[in-house]
Amino acid sequence: MKITPIIGLEVHVELKTKSKMFCNCSAEHFHVEPNTHTCPVCLGLPGALPVPNITACEWCVKLGLALGCTPNETSFFERKNYFYPDLAKGYQLTQYEKPFVINGKVKVGDQEVRINRAHMEEDTGKSVHISEYGQDLTLIDYNRCGVPLVEIVSEPDITSATMAKDYLLKMQQIIRYLGISDADIEKGSMRCEPTVNLKIEDNGEVFYTPLAEIKNVASLTGVQNAIEFEIKRQTEEFEKTREVKNSKNKTTRGWNAEKAQTFLQREKEGSADYRYFPEPDIPHMEFTPAQIEEIRISIPELPDQKIEKYKSVYSLNDYDSSVIATDQNFADIYETVVTPQNRNDKIKEFAKFVANLFLGAIKTHLNETGEELNQSKINPEYFLNLFDSVQKSEISSSAAKQVIVESYQTGTNPVEIAKDKGLIQVSDTGALEKMAQEVITANPKAVEDYKKNPMSIGFLIGQLMRLSKGSANPQMAKEILEKILNGN
Amino acid sequence: MSASNKITPEELDHIAKLARIDLTDDEKKTYLPQLESVLEYLDILNKADTTNIKPTFRVNEQKNVFHQDEVKESFSQKDALSTATKTKDGYFEVVATIKK
Ligand SMILES: [Zn+2]
């Protein structure tokens, strides 16, 4: 029996606009006094007129373009009707027939996930469930009701829980690069609903298990665990019942993080039951090709492009390139230090040198302090000075790591710090020859040993390093000692 | 849409459920023929030949009406809650939506 999971993801992203989707109430709702950002529109009072937020619409198109989607020429909102207390109007304004953008794709590792669509809609209010005198109550805060949401619907091209996680991380990266949302899964500004079923090949026959949509997944590990649980559950279920997918047996399952299992929620309302119809109060929207072009131009260089550039222009490896590109701030600061013009002939060495410092000593320091990389503490000139000193063997690579963090903290030139700490290596041949001579005279036994076994030169190098108080360049020390000893 | 303008009692129950209304048997007897007559009327509309006619979504030809992304004043919490049947600690209070 061969089992292939078929997974599609619906991702909801809350945009960080100042105002709500269809009114001018503040879109802020995290740790805000309940029901202080509402008006007739977002409370769904009779006669209120919703007017779309231009910035939110443009950001939806921007995200779509970044995902390689095509904008629809004309786009409009529709009413999705259902009753729930957190939905003030009794319907959600969303896009159904004509979303802003369609048909894109995202690279996940060396695979591709097709994007069906990205559309604009509004968030619901927040429910708080309490118990009072033995009675269960639900309290509603409409501050979040009407906050702009973009929903990104993937095709079912994801084949494992890990790939789903990588897809979400990639989506999060792109959204953060665009600066349109915090895309924080824990805080709820990015939410994910996987739909899972299995392709089962058994004795030359192919079966597809019933679809299950999973709700209430509130963390990245939750997504992975829920998908893994569902794959296992569906496999066992199929072995028991041999039930296959049809147009009526799609179910909605909740995710219980404590029990680490999914459970059957409610029967899924079919599309027909939502009675979608075009919102009559909001005129159609059309972006001209020039406006689309303007939005396209405003898209910054995205992680994939950065990784490609690091690999092709700077010859960085896959790993270094993708770690640097993970965070836009980090990547942009790296690029203020490493530019294609720097040290023309040695640009690749320089890029690798800076990458090692950024991903090693500096990143370790940031992890310890919990800070973000700060552009004002990075002086590109200092990195060039340090690189040149290492190239001239005045400073060892390990000393460079040592001084760069202090330089980051204090703003002092790392080469100065190295001087103060006595970390400058003596590479002056004359001075080294003098010291080598001294060491040879003082250690006749070791010289004898060397004549028998050239491998024993380590002892003499050690003596020379000691004499120089650690400042001698070890490689040169070895060469000079060998030259004198062999020349004798 | 089916060509038939008959509504089964099950369909009526389903529509009532979607609209969150409870109907007594008497009410069902009243509404069933009323809804059917609405469908009959739609049948008349369906007979019109709409080949090559673009769908109309609204009565005027306006497009691209947006608001700028600025924050304007909202209701006070007191005003927001003033039409609620029940409130608690600044929230609208409703019957529990989840079973514990
Ligand atoms: Zn409002």
List the keywords:
heterodimer, A: 488 residues, alpha+beta, Arc Repressor Mutant, subunit A, 3 domains, 10-stranded mixed beta sheet, 3-stranded antiparallel beta sheet, 15 helices, 20% strand, elongated, B: 100 residues, mainly alpha, Histone, subunit A, two-stranded antiparallel ribbon, 3 helices, 37% helix, flat, binds zinc ion
Topology:
The complex is a heterodimer of chains A (488) and B (100).
Chain A: E1 2-14, H1 54-66, E2 70-71, E3 78-81, E4 91-94, E5 101-108, E6 111-122, E7 126-132, E8 135-141, E9 148-154, H2 161-178, E10 190-202, E11 205-208, E12 212-215, H3 220-241, E13 251-256, E14 261-267, E15 277-278, H4 289-297, H5 303-314, H6 318-326, H7 328-337, H8 347-369, H9 380-391, H10 397-410, H11 414-420, H12 429-442, H13 444-452, H14 457-467, H15 474-487
Parallel strand pairs in A: 12-13
Antiparallel strand pairs in A: 1-9, 1-10, 2-5, 3-4, 3-15, 5-6, 6-9, 7-8, 10-11, 10-12, 13-14
Chain B: H1 9-18, H2 25-46, H3 77-81, E1 87-88, E2 91-95
Antiparallel strand pairs in B: 1-2
Bound molecules: zinc ion.
Zinc ion (ZN) is lined by residues 20, 23, 25, 38-39, 41-42, 146 of chain A.
